[in-house]
Amino acid sequence: MLLGVNIDHIAVLREARKINDPDPLDAISLVKRAGADQITIHLREDRRHINDMDALRIIENSQLPINMECAIDAEIIDTVIDMNPHRVTLVPEKREEVTTEGGLNLITNFKTIEKISKRLKEANIELSVFIDPDMFQIKMAKSLGAQWIELHTGLYANIYAMLNTNLKNTNHSIKELDLPREALHVKLQDATKQLQSSAKLADELEIKVAAGHGLNYQNVRAVANIPEIIELNIGQSIIARSIFTGFESAVKEMVHEISR
Ligand code: PXP
After folding, report:
1. Does the reported pTM lie above 0.85?
2. For the chain, which residues score pLDDT lower than 50?
3. Which CATH superfamily is domain 2-259 in?
4. Which end of the chain has fewer CB atoms at under 10 Å, N or C?
């Protein structure tokens, strides 16, 4: 199982003060030393955390591949292609959201993504699409020529959190989780099964499968156990733990957790 560490949250902390510290660039050698496999960053249209200079410096200096998340916006796609990351993960993006909510709809955005896919292929950059675990979306990903899909685990993570802590974990589909415990158990099983069958279908279609969003040291095991999922992208829980235990140690613990 490969681990991509999402380091946006280091820039979130820096932007809280609008100074130079902490620098997300300082994380990249520690991610490698801790045994993870990839750096994931999200260049948002509003540049609210990672900015262009961060992305350029990280791409230039990282010994690990860079997975760059971005919206399907023409200006941001131009910028990202110029930066030449290893992989681009297309995500839905709304300015007012706290973090990525839900997967990208490949059906309503088919024409736009088709053009992006062509441009990425010409630039020799891998394409991944961040989608909900939905059979139709996976078939669309295949038609679009995506080499990867990343399955949105937000719903699974939220149900898990509601059952175990009564607190939400991500802001994904909160309303439908206002249910008694027995019903939440069934929902958790359904969400896990959806991830399993989606990963299986993608694998059959020869698409590589990643997953992420809301995964933490408690809920990650069931997702890591799905054989067709070969990579997890995790940010918030690792950065949160690193405040108390140190960054390298927090990454190491996650590497350990997902390889168990
Ligand atoms: N994967 C994608 C596509 C994301 O947008 C995010 C959130 O930025 C993550 C993974 C990581 O999610 P989390 O910070 O909840 O671990």
Report:
1. yes
2. none
3. Aldolase class I (3.20.20.70)
4. C
